[in-house]
Structure prediction request, 902 residues.
Amino acid sequence: MRWLAALLLGCWLGVAGGALANDRSAVKQAVVLASPQGYVLDADIDVALNPTLEDALTRGINLHFQLNLELTRPRNWWFDESIAEPVRKMRIYYHLLLRRYVVETGYTTQTTATLDEALALLGRVESWQVLERGALITGQRYDARLRLRLDTAQLPKPLSIGAVTSDKWEFSTPWYGWSFEAPALPAPPPLP
Amino acid sequence: MRSLIVAALIMGIVLLFLLFDASSGSSPLSDTLPTLFIGGSVLGVALLVLLGWRLWWLQKRIRRGVFGAKLTLKLLLMFGVVAMLPGLVVYGASVFFLNRSIETWFDVRVDNALTSGVNLGHAALDDLLRELDKKAQRMALTLSDEGIGSTITSLSILREQSAVQELTLFDERGGVIAHLSGERGTLLPVLPERSVLWQVRQQQPYSRIEEVAERGLIMRVIVPVYTSALAGETRVLQLVQPVPAALARDAQAVQLAYQEYQQIAVSRLGLKRIYGVALTLTLMLALLMTLVIAYLLSERLGAPLRSLARGTRAVAKGDFSQMPSVKSRDELGVLIQSFNRMTRQLSEAREQVARNHQQTEQAKAFLERVLANLSSGVVVLDEALRVRTVNSAAAQILGVADAAFDAHPLAELGQPSEALHAFGATVAARFAEHEGEWQEQIDYAGHGGNQSLLLRGTRLPPGVERGYVLVFDDVTKLIDAERNAAWSEVARRLAHEIKNPLTPIQLSAERIAKKLDGRLEAADAEFLARATQTIVNQVAAMKSMVDAFANYARMPRARLEATDLNALVREVLALYDAKALGLQLHLDAGLPRIAGDSTLLRQVIHNLLQNAQDALTGHPAPRVEVGTHLDNDAVYLTVTDNGAGFPEHLMTRLFEPYATTKTKGTGLGLAIVKKIVEEHHGKIQIENLKSGGAAIRIALPVSDAAGEQA
Prediction:
């Protein structure tokens, strides 16, 4: 009776600390750029799925990803000020009838013939609108960190619950942190 | 404690209900499941802690020896086993069937069928696409020779012929030259991507099935259209044809089924795990709750036993007031009721015993009082003639302490030389001789001279206890009184009978003397005178003797007053020649007054001194000691002389009339003394001294009035 409870407890505790990152996946490069509409993010991410996820993909299971960006302004003697935490939701799945990988990023949908192409597509972030104009002070230093992770809550329910007990269904790049000076914004485009 | 358990139980039930609801309802795996799992685990741990705490508490109680704790533990364990066995069996069976049933979902044939279905769809689509591709090739060939002008017409004809929904012709840069669509076609063409156009121009035709948001699945084929003219540009022809609706629908359905099947297949482990965890959690919660309920139940079951134990302990201590209250109507309640009844009966019995004991004590005390106040001596003996009880009168009569009797056999009382020993031996012999009752009068040489004892022995009737009873009375006084009365009567008769003829004898003698006076010769006359004188004198002496007897018989009753004995002694002794007697006085100055008649006492002193004087006649160195002293509420008068003492053969009859050693005298002296002393409720004792002579000791009671005055 007691050992059963102890076992369960141990299970929960083990899971809580078991979000293991995939070694080969990492954010290679990321930069915040100025655009007429505000600030955009360009990033290049290596995405390598483990066999379990690849297998799931080939079976037609949708994988939802989240691109998390955290922008903070460092302060002396105090906690950093949180500026924004935009999230970009992405989806990748294998369309059985088309026999092609579908990558949905924001409002665009693209199909690729191979998984590698699809993952490359997923890892290439271009002109992601992250901040409005005026959100940053030009010349000020900001800290940013970025990661891509699998949104296990969006997995099919049995999997999402099962995922809690298995780290095979965990995917996340380590946080990629960098520091930048807010670039000056170009003049806004003239209103039509 | 109880509310805590109840709260935990309610929470557990609610949780289980939610768990069942979450895993069985229309939404098979609700979002709340992880929360429920965590909640269940927390509750399980809480219940476990609760149970552990109670067990620890129980163990402490057991170690302390609290009654009922062991029973509670035992019941708890029994309940636990009873609950656990079926629970575990059902759990095992459930897990087994769960795994089996989940596994049965996944069949290779189903898998193959679904895969084949998908492949079938692929093949069908591929077929259609290939057909469209051929059409496109043909159209491209047809169009290659057409001039710009006739292109539209040709296209229109071609579209009609090939029943393609949408035809679009692009120029080299991607600009639309012509766009033809059927009834369901769109007004605007689907523009190919630049890379596709470029690819097509490199003689790589594009043929693909695509999914377009508004139109569903479409087939799209893009082919280059070459012109025969050398300088002519390479145009591009795009054919768009929707997949037939039925096929599309079926293919989608197959795809969906395949997808879902794969999903479940992938999450098979997760599912098993979820159901397993849910089952385990349910089992754990159910068991824990059962155990907690078992604890409550065992507590409840043990409660009447505990109260019973409390009652038993109280009864053991002698407290009958602690009655355990009866609440339940089952056997335990009956048991408690029986216990209460028993306690009540016990209490009543004890009271009864106490009452009986008290009554016995009272009866015994009463009996002892009666025995103590009995003037007769009573000795109770057991079967072996051992003394069991002696009343105080017995000891008093025999003149020994009560302790002399203590559980001694009758034949071994006192020292062999003592009178008590002889007494005991006599009585033992009598009991041995007689079967039933016997009676005998014996002499007993006790402390106060010889006593006559009247003994009556009885064998107790064979009943509860066998034994003997000896009752005896000191009849000395009675015998004395009888003797005295007899002597008084004799004296009175004698006086009367003798006195009557004396006067005529005297008168006759005197008359003879008178008649013959002067008529006789001198010698005869003198003889006559002498003879008559003798008669007269002897008659006078006889008269005085008879008077003395009469006096003895008619002794006046003593009038007791407070009297100073010392003064009386001095007064009487003044009449005697102190020197001739060698008188010595030892008078106690602090003597209280006695209750006595001074006239009679005076006579007593006279008589005693007279006796002493008589005994000392002719003694070369006479000595008489007269003393008084106080001892134990009695005043003693002692008269001691150094004469010859009393002859031994007279010692027992000294106080009877005519017991005398003297040649003359009536022998009434000591008899009178005795009588007077007895009138005064005193005692008299005579003994011969070893140094020679006799001592007479008289004890007289102190006057009550005198005591008060002193």
